[in-house]
Write a structure and sequence with these properties.
Helix content is 18%, strand content 42%. The chain is built from 9 helices and 28 strands.
Amino acid sequence: MKRSLQVLLLVLAGLSANGVEGADWVFEGNALFSSARLLQALSRYDAGPASGGDVTAADDAAYFLREFYFSQGFPDAEVTYDFSPSRVVFSITEGDRLWIGRVTFQGGEEISRDRLQGIFTSAIRQATRSAFGRLRYVAAAVEDAVEKLRQAYVNEGFLDAAASVVEQPAADFKTVDLTVVIEPGVQFHIGRVRLSGAGFEESAALLKELSAFESRPFRPADRVLCQSRALDFLRAHGYFFAAVQVENVPGSGAGIVDLVVTPTAGQKMRIGKVTTSGAQRTAERSLLGRFGIRSGAIYNGTALDAAERRLWFTGAFSSVDVDARPGSKNSVDVAIHVAERDSKSFAATVGYSEWYLAFGTATYTDRNFLGTLDRLRMTGFISQKSFGGDIEFSDPWLLGTDLLGSVAAFASRKELPAFKATEFGTRIGIGQKQNERFGTGWGLTYEWKSVSSALILSGSEPDTLEDYRLGLLTFRQELDRRNDPLTPMSGYDLRYEAGVAAPPLLGELTFFRATAQATWYLPLRKIVPERPFVPFFTFNHRAGLILPFGDTASIPVPERFFLGGPDSVRSFQFDGMAPRDRSGIPLGGLAFFQANIELQWPVGRGFYLAAFTDAGNLASKLDEMELSQTRIAPGAGIRFYTPLGALRMDYAYNVIRRDGDPLGAWQFGLGVTF
């Protein structure tokens, strides 16, 4: 009994010395942050009551509490604690909270002050995890921001750049003014790129490829980039075992660096065996055809990478792995392993629009139709005014080339401001896209359709065909140089299309139709990773012309141009711009032009205010177009950029109103305006 009592006393003494798990933690002196907020902050460091009730846990918590207060702009914060086995009391002296006041830059004019401010601000916000509002003063964050400024100069070729900061408390002792002193030093440039070592067949072509590095500022990463480009060049010309070394040596003059490239080409190789594995539903013939690399071809590492991307972009595989290994007799064997995914998908949307009112759409897509890697898409739509659907089969790798071929059938019942009509038909197209991301490329489309049960809502068009057949051959091209297709803020997009309708194309109408559009995006500040949202101008121009010929004297209303709506002249509702009849029903026209200028200014992350002016003119015929009939519509709006595009709300006002013109109109839309 006496021995058991001694053991119990020893256990109690151990618990008293080391504390017990789950001790109560109490905070005192925390005026700005609640106890719950402090416990939440400690949980980020895996510290808190649940982490243990011993002295070590309490000491760690006090340290992390000080770090938390430092990160919130309290540089003089102090934290002490009083420990007992069941209760830990943390005494907090917060001190004054400091903010960053005026930030000025001294020296280093080689980089604009606007960009320096953007780098500095972005670094502070990232370090302090504060996306908006005033910048908190945190000494470690300021040091990190100054280092990022120095690195910016190094990346412009100022290898010996130095940066420091001078802090000056403001008169109110609540803010700290900062002066960042920058000493860029000498800017280094690349002089010559020279080849060293034994020559090979493509030596001159390689040297020409690498000459792009000459005369530009020398950056620390340029040596690796030059090595990578040289290696890619050699492997694209059959040299599977190629190796490259690059050294930078002093050039002829101060601040000049030459790059000495030593390539080891090795033996030129050809493609040997090409094998596949992992495909269960996909036919091997289709997989190899889409891969496009055949046995006997010169080994080309760049082409293999492109072939791998082609398989990936089919959407039929969750993974694609291409393994190239040395074979026999100077050959490279290629093994393709794929993991198939469910290539079938279904999507549905519901919404509400100004003209169609409530609407819904449904789309079924099969990206590996019958194991061919071709695509089948079926789309249906229904609204309070229209309904219809289409089915399209497409081959993105037509006949083993990078041409896109498609055939589609469609049918719909349309109700628009000018007419109602039932139409059905088919489309056959062929085209080519420069890449997957942008629309640059060309296309040739043949469309045949039959329009029936048509009702022209205006009674002033008695000589116009209501039911007819149309055969139309259209060629289009686009050059897209925007920085981003969903949120463009710089670059341009140029496009046009021209088509002809004639009886040999199985139609009843004969006319020529052409449209063109040019859109420029002009940023007012440089777009950099630390500041992706900048103010910018958009300049948009559109024009179109229809010229009937032969036996066609009047173009049917459904084939005419219309203006008005969220992507056109925004002071008019959808298709609502003149010419109109006496009842206000739009008649459409055979010639139009449209011009838009818009300024968007960021006011928050992803939010923009917009100011714009639209102008447009729509005429029954080209020779009837008069400048005095041009409508001018200034307006303003709001933009919110999301990963799916921009949500837009605009109001535009008609400066000069003609008979039947509205005072203005509200517009709502999704995506870029032009």
